[in-house]
Amino acid sequence: MTLPDLPEGARRLVREDGSVVVPPALAGEVLRCLLRDLSSRVRADGGELSAGVRELLWGLHAAATEVEQRQGSVDGTGQAGPGTVEVGISDAARRLGCSREYARRLARGGRLPARRVGRTWLVDAAAFAAGEE
């Protein structure tokens, strides 16, 4: 594969087949950027994510989570991972098409990926980007 003039660091990330390697340390940041942009696109035009994009998002989420765990994070601390984008329960309810109370019940029951901070529920936006509504 012929590469344009790229910095050496970028050149090392491009494979012969044209695929790009995302270093694990950057997976969370890349995931946040993609989720932010995809969420606004879906809100704007109701676009549906392809299966390939959903798989990529889950892969980035898994890599970001692995990095966090290797860096000594303790499970059960109630903190979001570096690649986690969260929305409030009202936004989650709107996206699910249900009441806020029902969304809270889903979160409490573990059927909606969420965590509680004080009196506020924060829902993992990756659940919506991955089509798990």
In short:
This protein is mainly α and 133 residues long. The protein has helices at 8-13, 24-45, 51-70, 89-96, 100-108, 126-129, and strands spanning 86-88, 114-117, 120-124.
Distance between the termini: 40 Å
Biggest sheet architecture: 3 strands, antiparallel
Give the total of beta strands: 3
The ordered string of helix (H) and strand (E) elements is: HHHEHHEEH
Task: Tell me what the structure shows.
The structure is a single chain. With 133 residues, this protein is mainly α. The chain has one domain. It is 52% helix and 9% strand. It is built from six helices and three strands. A three-stranded antiparallel beta sheet has the order 1-3-2. Helix 2 runs antiparallel to helix 3 and helix 4 packs across helix 5. It is elongated. The termini are far apart. About 5% of the residues have low confidence.
Key traits:
133 residues; mainly alpha; 3-stranded antiparallel sheet; 3 strands; elongated
